[in-house]
Amino acid sequence: MDVRGRGALITGASKGLGAALAYELARRGARVALVARGVDELERTAARIRAAGFEAHALPADVGDKRAVHGIAGAAAALVGPIDILVHNASDLGPTPLRLLLDTECEDLESVLQTNLVGPFRLTKIVAGAMAMRGTGVVVHVSSDAAIAAYPRWGIYSVSKAALDHLNRLWAVELASTGVRFVSVDPGEMDTEMHAAAMPDADRGKLLRPQDVAARVARLIEDAERIESGSRLALAELP
Length: 239
Ligand SMILES: NC(=O)c1ccc[n+]([C@@H]2O[C@H](COP(=O)([O-])OP(=O)(O)OC[C@H]3O[C@@H](n4cnc5c(N)ncnc54)[C@H](OP(=O)(O)O)[C@@H]3O)[C@@H](O)[C@H]2O)c1
Hints:
The protein is α/β, with parallel strands linked by helices. The chain has a single domain (7-237), classed as NAD(P)-binding Rossmann-like Domain (Rossmann fold). The chain contains 7 helices and 7 strands, in the order βαβαβαβαβαβααβ. The chain has helices spanning 16-27, 39-51, 69-80, 106-134, 155-174, 193-198, 210-222, and strands spanning 7-11, 31-36, 56-60, 83-88, 137-142, 180-186, 231-234. Helix 3 (69-80) runs parallel beside helix 4 and helix 4 packs parallel to helix 5. The longest helix is centred in the middle third of the chain and has 29 residues, at 106-134. The model has no long low-confidence stretch (mean pLDDT 97). NADP nicotinamide-adenine-dinucleotide phosphate binds next to helix 1, strand 2 and helix 6.
């Protein structure tokens, strides 16, 4: 997909991978709407992109709040035009330090699923029908290796990402032949606040830079027509 002039909605875009991807897509000519809960950091990120000469709009909201999702989609379309690129990047680890399942509250599982799974489902439901009518669109689900591997203490985050991967496949099957493409991306371990919260003792020098990962995700979006819809791609395993 040629992203120039296309409307893009990126959740979790105030910092980390989401902020880097918002910059990268805007730099490539997309009109970008950024969502996160923290207003100040989100406004600063959008302002940085605009200061570089590109289009970016801050839309403070919680993707896990069902009362917010119609407002997010509507405001984004009003600001950047039809949403042709939707990136579900916002994510919640649950309580940190990460806990064993036996020590996990059921309410924490519910809360993580609202942000990591139900929110993306709601937003795609709102946006993908219009994409299908236009015959174009790319929906990216940001996943994790924790969706595949059973790491102790990563339980509720892991199940949310495993379900997100399968949701990606199901959307792809049900919207096959509409022109809307779905892809799930495992970005690899990045030097971000989320990684520091989960693994505070990690050697940061060995982690990927979100900017480098964002450039690869932006290229995937540009190449979306050549990728089988519903694929799960681990960026580290790609050439
Ligand atoms: N970092 C890694 O090593 C790694 C590895 C594998 C996968 N991932 C995945 O990559 C994605 C980006 O992770 P990251 O490390 O860049 O995270 P990050 O630096 O912690 O950033 C997370 C972003 O999501 C926003 N956010 C969180 N909950 C939200 C909610 N309910 N509604 C709206 N926005 C919300 C945060 O802002 P607010 O808190 O202000 O809302 C922030 O902008 C996530 O899907 C993560 O699971 C990361």
